[in-house]
């Protein structure tokens, strides 16, 4: 007689199978030359969005969209790791695996979501995704844990079984928070080609009542809002999301006022969380130091017409990683600024500080010997007042024979910061241009984090951030400063090689 397997057992078995698959590739993946030195990666295989980012019992937990059976997107699991400082991470067992009628599907699984701590129990909310009769069915589901490591799916799943009339089948990525005595959830959706954030309320995290559309696209803000996140900041509220159908705009933030009596968010400030090619689905937490911190997937979907794949074919055993966590602060004019967390400074070694002014003459290049490395940090300040250069900046990850390089340059007459990876590695493509607020000011300050196959560039004191992947050969480690058509002075310069955390 066939013994019917309980849902708990099914989940445990699916998790064990995923663990075995990762164990089989883990060592091979660890040897892969493009693995990061100080950005978060899973032990092996494909990852995308950060999920369930939270501080629980004093430690930071990061979950993530995970496919343990390949280096491409597949049936979604939740990978898991924790950290004491957001810099060093300990990998933990896979937290969620598809196992139930509402989340078991090769083309679906346990999609993105969030975590809350309620009386020492960790609640994970995720979107169960399956395809039925050719249609996507997305429902909001719950799993809980008391030890923060082993999760059981709620017997009453899904906790939200149907999208409301105002939404559609695209109904995913719940983010949950508490306000006064109630729990709230925002879910990404769309209708009639407009992205939306749908608002729910619950007294107990299990029964959810639909309130209304928290905010929606005015027609120019994307056709579907993925991974919404909503939080208070100062005396304002912030809604972040990753819109589909906005070209190279991958992460939007809106700042405004929340009215909990109507459930409507009125916003009047709009910006991009990151203007680069490879920053998607940021999720935030509030930590015990009072910091609002975000982390994001270092890649994005349908990023450009020249889309090929997520990493070069030579990269084996892993694909996808996370940004350096960034604090989010509200500036006086209502805009946001994003800074890499202070804890990152613990990785600095062999520092170099130059405070005396140094001129980069017309059509000159200065090789930065200290930065002959794949993993470094730099803070450079250029004088814009006495600058007659047409273009100046940095060449990154230059090969010894100069055939490969990545160019980051500033055009003083237009204020454009340009990132060109078309000669980075024979695989990457694309030029990203963004006008900086530094235009018309006295100085240009750039803070750059380079790590094997990703670079994060912070300008405008964190009000403009650009993140890009590039896949240069590990031997391409020349870094140089250049100026073209005139000269520019470097007024201050700090740089460090950064230690590996892995
Ligand atoms: C965003 C996203 C989410 C979804 C998940 C699936 O990158 O498309 O909307 O939940 O990825 O992996």
Strand-helix topology:
Elements: H1 7-30, E1 45-56, E2 59-67, E3 77-83, E4 89-96, E5 109-118, E6 121-132, E7 135-145, E8 152-153, E9 171-179, E10 182-191, E11 194-202, E12 209-216, E13 224-233, E14 236-244, E15 252-259, E16 264-272, E17 280-286, E18 292-297, E19 318-319, E20 326-330, E21 336-340, E22 348-354, E23 358-360, E24 365-367, E25 375-383, E26 391-398, E27 406-411, E28 416-420, E29 431-435, E30 443-451, E31 454-459, E32 464-469, E33 478-484, E34 488-498
Parallel strand pairs: 1-19
Antiparallel strand pairs: 1-2, 2-3, 3-4, 5-6, 6-7, 7-8, 9-10, 10-11, 11-12, 13-14, 14-15, 15-16, 17-18, 18-20, 20-21, 22-34, 23-34, 24-33, 25-30, 25-34, 26-27, 26-33, 27-28, 28-29, 30-31, 31-32
The structure holds beta-D-fructofuranose.
Structural description of this entry:
- This protein is mainly beta.
- The protein folds into two domains: 7-28 and 41-340, Glycosyl hydrolase domain, family 43 (Tachylectin-2, Chain A, 5 Propeller); 348-497, Exo-inulinase, domain 1 (Jelly Rolls), CATH 2.60.120.
- It has one helix at 7-30; strands spanning 45-56, 59-67, 77-83, 89-96, 109-118, 121-132, 135-145, 152-153, 171-179, 182-191, 194-202, 209-216, 224-233, 236-244, 252-259, 264-272, 280-286, 292-297, 318-319, 326-330, 336-340, 348-354, 358-360, 365-367, 375-383, 391-398, 406-411, 416-420, 431-435, 443-451, 454-459, 464-469, 478-484, 488-498.
- The strands form seven sheets. Strands 22, 23, 25, 30, 31, 32 and 34 form a seven-stranded antiparallel sheet that branches.
- Strand 7 and strand 8 (152-153) form a beta hairpin.
- The radius of gyration is 23 Å and the shape is globular.
- The structure holds beta-D-fructofuranose.
